[in-house]
Write a structure and sequence with these properties.
single chain, alpha/beta, five-stranded parallel sheet, three-stranded antiparallel sheet
Length: 709
Amino acid sequence: MATSSVSKGCFVFKPDFKKRKISVPIEEYFNKGKNESEDSKLRFETYQLIWQQMKSETEQLQEELNKNLFDSLIKFLQKSHSGFQKNSRDWGYQIKLREIPTAALILGVNVTDHDLTFRSLTEALQNNVTPYVVSLQARDCPDMKHFLQKLFSQLVDCCVDAEFKEEEKDIQKKTHYSMDYLSSWYMNVTQKTDPGKPGKKRTSSQCQPPPVVLILKDLESFTTKVLQDFIIISSQHLHEFPLILIFGIATSPVIIHRLLPHAVSSLLCIEIFQSLSCKQHLTTVLDKLLLTTQFPFKLSEKVLQILTNIFLCYDFSIQNFIKGLQLSLLEHFYSQPLSVLCCNLPEAKRRINFLSDNQCENIRRLPSFRRYVEKQAAEKQVALLTNEKFLKEETQSLLENLHVYHTNYFLVLRCLHQFTSSLPKYPLGRQIRELYCTCLEKNVWDSEEYVSALQLLRMLAKDELMTILQKCFNILKSSSEKQLGDTAKRIEELLAQFQSPDEVKEEEDASGSQSKGLQKTDLYHLQKSLLEMKELRRSNKKQTKFEILREKVVNFIDSLVREYLLPPETQPLHEVVYFTAAHALREHLNAAPRMALHTALNNPYHYLKNEALKSEEGCIPNVAPDICIAYKLHLECSRLINLVDWSEAFATVVTAAEKMDANSITSEERNEVIHARFIRAVSELELLGFVKPTKRKTDHVARLTWGGC
């Protein structure tokens, strides 16, 4: 695009919207993956279907977990609002009218999940309490002016009357905001708005104007002076501007008294509400998404360990855990061609009939299927490796067995958790996810923790054992499997035996009669006789009926564990539904920016894939980017780097393989260009935090990183 002008100037060219690059749909990237096959579109559709089901399940679960908390909050707000309308001459009641109703909502340190909770809370309050619900963050309220401005702008957005809302928006910029103005505006709006309008559910009486609910999402980040001023001013206008506060707290309720002095906190009528803990939330999510046969997709032990470690060691965020689960699901369908069979059992059987020859070969290449073939008879081995029809029939049978395996697996896992979750020191873990990871990794009965758990189970009291057996019976009776149905009957029989009267301990009577038969003797013979009787009693001691039944229960549970809690690797075709690429997930989720930066600067070929950048270890190619050359030179220096020496070394490397041409550029100009390149490279290293200026020596910089990263 050319321009002509007599003098120098600045010309602006607006972009052509028609030539903008069109974004490529995600399915196109999915189809062009490293394992492209004829059913890549079907795999992507299956991924979308399973993820939508998981997403809807998590949203429903979130609503159920927040229901009790929201109901308590709504009840508190309605009770507080009704107190504004009562007329009483009681002195104590008049004092209480100056207290702002405040709900301290303890949400925990998982700050990334708070936005979703506050959105759901706002919707619930608007449907049940008041349309005037405002949410403010500390970053938007550095002072009182911005605080009131944000409060008023969001109140206008909450206004029911659309015409009135437009009128207020036009005069917002010309208004000096104050609590007097907000109070008069509130009285004006509530008088104009018909409280009986449809579309808003209110439980308070129609003659009462709705309150204003102000949610401070991150109380710890608010300025102390802003909070104090707002609370003091608002308490003077409660009879005109019925305000209710909700504090979003991530740490502890003590933060309220740290931010506010007693003179200000005494103006608040505070009630504390505690949300469900992050670990309990995680256990519920795992129970609904992974420990069930509703979704065919499963995680291996290493992948599940990575996701739970990120959750427990970094952010406690359920939303990030679910995103990691979504990434695992996407990576599984992207990298595994046979994931087309990762769907519900009837659909998987139908798809098997339409598998291509290439997909049949993929089945034969699976390690679990090859181990299965090796265990079969010679004739069946030949048929599985050569006959496509027989292979498809066998695959259908194996997938059905895998479904039955998961059904039995999760039922027995829950039963074992009931037995081990209350044991001292929790040898197999307190949470079911810990037991699940152990069972995924290896044969759980070979571990020392399992042996210790069985020893502790043999010491349980009768009441504890009966309670656990009843819980296991309730878990198993819901199963339709024949074997587990017999298991439920067996547990019911054991419960009936426990409820029968205990046997009389005959050995106690015998020991009593023997003690009565003792005759007078000296101390030596008496001690000898007592020791003999003790040994005789120990050798002839019989187990009571309860001890025999308890031993039967422990052996019965042990047999169930050994039969049904086999690791998934023992099942043929487990690769179809289990995502095992833990390294791929770790690369995406466990970011290591320092190592990535060191790799990019020390070995630019790793990312650029330019053959000219290949070099032996310790060598510095002159064609590398300037910042890479400067970085590798600075690794050879000590704590203080002389800029003159560094510049000369940089120039030596850059000009090492260049051919001098006297006619093209002078030596002085060439040195100036190299010097400018060096200054830019050092500035970039300073920006990245590798070096910094120092006053200890002239023309020196200080090195900030060690150890090669």
